[in-house]
Amino acid sequence: MKRLFIYSALFFTTMVQAQQDPQFTQYFDNFLHVNPAYAGSSGMLSATAIHREQWVGFAGAPRSTTFSLHTPLNYRSVGLGLTAVNDMIGPVRQNMVYVDFSYTLKLGDKARLALGLKGGMNMLNVGTGEFVNVQQNDPAFQNVTNQINPNVGFGIYYHDEHFFLGVSSPRLLENSGSTPNSYREQRHYFGIVGGVFPVCKSWKLRPSVQTKATVGAPISLDISLAGIYADKLWLGAMNRWNAAAGGFAQYQVNRQLRVGLAAEYGMSPIRNYNNGTFEILLSYDFNYKKSDVKSPRYF
Question: How far apart are CA 198 and CA 254, in angstroms?
């Protein structure tokens, strides 16, 4: 209970100026959550789910689940998607549901440039009954209200056969409630770049870098490198600059299904009070008869 009190106090004193979006070791499989222009880019109906247990063994630790579903329409010029996120940090519960729309321009035989829009809502619930208040009538814990915040976002995504690049801001509106202790959404900016490059007959390398920035918090930089063996086995490592390092493994079970596991360990002193961070991934492409769609997809 002591840890929950400390974590809750830290959360409410820094929540206005902090990174608010959940982060993932396997961020490269979570494009649609942060960039609506990714909708439909796989060329087929695709679904991805990631569950993350952060700081296992630490009371009130973050727990995040994300699900995305998207598909191309109208000869692949238009893409539609759905993203949902459930994020828990101590007594705070956040549920985000968004619809994604993209329009893709052909820049050549393989190159595509997509523009995307996102719209939906963020539902925030604060379980005040879980607080441990050592000071009676502490104003920091008074009039804490639940909120439903509508929001919109945008994104740009370029990709060709070997390279991808995207920039986005998934929630543009900085909503806040009417009380002094209301939760205020910070606008976040994302950038991602990477590619896939063959090194021999059986192996490919897939490097990628993601940056995340918001006012009042340090820039987050995630760097990953994966080796892909025979288009079946993915083995990789990642580093979140000055924050965490980890590894992941994914296996392409068949033309449709990929599964993945990841582990991450922090570099801050809090690592001494938890057993690390773990993720599981399931990705399914409804790819049965489209011989013109590459399998597996790399991004």
Answer: 21
CA distance 20 to 120: 17
Are the CB atoms for 39 and 103 separated by under 8 Å?
A: no
Supply the CATH number for residue 211's domain: 2.40.160.40
**pLDDT, tens digit (0-9, with 9 covering 90-100), for 46-72:** 999 999 999 998 888 899 999 999 999
Residue 73, in any domain of the structure: yes
Distance CA 108, CA 106 (A): 6
Structural domain including 43 reads 2-285
Q: How many CB atoms lie within 10 A of CB 198?
A: 11
CA atoms in the 13 A half-sphere facing the CB of 155 = 36
Strands annotated E in 132-269: 147-159, 163-169, 189-195, 197-198, 203-213, 220-229, 233-240, 244-252, 257-266
What span, in angstroms and rounded, lies between the C-alpha atoms of 255 and 232? 10
Looking at the predicted structure, is the pLDDT value of residue 7 above 60?
Answer: no
What gap in Å lies between CA 63 and CA 89, rounded to an integer? 7
Q: Using an 8 Å Cβ cutoff, are 227 and 204 in contact?
A: yes
Confidence of residue 287 (pLDDT cuts 50, 70, 90): confident
Assess contact for 111 and 156: CB atoms under 8 A. Answer: no
Instruction: Please give the pLDDT value at position 183.
Output: 64
What is the overall mean pLDDT for the chain?
Answer: 86
- Tell me how many domains the chain contains: 1
- Pinpoint the alpha helices (H) of 99-234: none
- 192-202 per-position pLDDT tens digit: 999 999 999 99
